[in-house]
Amino acid sequence: MSALGIPGLPRTVLRLHRSALIVWGAFVAALIGWLVWLNTVTSSAGERQRAYCDHHDTCNILDQLNYGQRTVWVATLVCYSSLAVAAWSGASLIGRELESGTAQLAWTQGVSPARWLAAKLAVPALLVTLGCTALVLAYRRAWSAHPGLRDGDWTSVVTFVARGPATVAYALCALAVGTLTAMLLRRTLPALGVSLAATWALHLALEIFREHLWPAVNRVTATEELWPRHAWVLESGAIRHGHRVAYTGTSPCEGNPAQVKQCAADLDITGYYTVYHPQSHYWPLHLVETGVVLAVAVLAAVLAFRLLPRRTRAARKESLV
Questions:
Q1: Which of 213, 215, 233, 317 is nearest to 274 (CA)?
Q2: How far is residue 39's CA from residue 141's CA, in Å, rounded to a whole number?
Q3: Dist. CA 207–CA 210, nearest whole Å
Q4: Dihedral Cα 83, 89, 90, 96, nearest 10 deg
Q5: What is the strand order of the sheet 243-246 is part of?
Q6: Which CB contacts under 8 angstroms, 24+ apart, belong to 239-246?
Q7: What is the DSSP string of 47-86?
């Protein structure tokens, strides 16, 4: 009883899943080590090449490209690390124990199903939060340290997630979704596949609708202007006959100011518009997305706990048979 009480239950979870804990710790340490290497060795070579290119007509930009591309690789791994969490949660953390009967055995040893599931979620949630927070802090440091060597900006899909708490939210959501999936299916491999698919679908849905999570800026001008620096431009075009006509390619009027003015008059263009998110919208967009993902995580966790009594009754019936 004492071994399975509240103090010992988290220890039991750690002991049962120590291999996954070691792999997760190695993954976090490897990515942070890679970022340190990029910020010291790779970035130094890139900065030297960039300084050389600023004063010479021909130069080698491979070192600059290496830093930018490899930083994007790290951001991709950080952004989609939640997929691995979902697979492990659905298959190993919950699915395997329900399928093998280990969970039912624990329920007969003085551990209530609710306490068992709470420990199963709380211990990994703490470790996932700590690991993802360390990755976010390390990546933010790397991303801001050498802006001249970056590949892409804040609007990049993976960079957008990897720079803030959405990384932690996605991982926690994957943990909850994997748990719910395992509770529903009670089979290891199906739970693994469905958990992966559900987490991927959430990523994809929010990537598609991300631009709508915060009101965009609408700018209308009498003359065509350059886009704001580092802005996420959603749409731009001309105003003709009182209606907005989006550009399908380049501007229809090009050349010197006189030619542009004459072209605009010929096409009855009375103004220009741009719909965009300035760089200052990063945090509102990011925090709204984080809130949406956390809401999905809470919903999945609540459904898993509500489903638990049904699974408990089913396990008791199977044991009687």
A1: 233
A2: 9
A3: 5
A4: 140
A5: 217-221, 269-277, 232-240, 243-246
A6: 239/269, 239/270, 239/271, 239/272, 239/273, 240/267, 240/268, 240/269, 240/270, 241/268, 242/270, 244/273
A7: HHHHHHHTT-SS---HHHHHHHHHHHHHHHHHHTHHHHHH
Token representation of residue 209? 């609708």
Averaged in consecutive runs of 10 residues, what is the pLDDT profile of the chain (321 residues)?
Answer: 51 81 93 89 66 61 69 92 90 80 70 83 92 95 78 86 96 94 88 93 96 93 75 87 77 71 78 90 96 96 88 56 47
Residue type, 213: L
Structure tokens at 77: 């791994």
Q: What is the dihedral of CA 182, 186, 189, 191, to 10 degrees?
A: -20
Rounded to 10°, the helix 8-16/18-37 angle is: 70
CA 43/CA 90 separation, integer angstroms: 39
Domain layout of the chain by residue ranges = 2-213+283-320, 232-277
Task: Specify whether the CB–CB gap between 213 and 285 falls below 8 A.
Answer: yes
What's phi and psi for 289, nearest 5 deg?
A: -60, -40
What pLDDT, on the 0 to 100 scale, is given for residue 30? 96
Cα–Cα distance, 165 to 275 (Å, whole number): 27
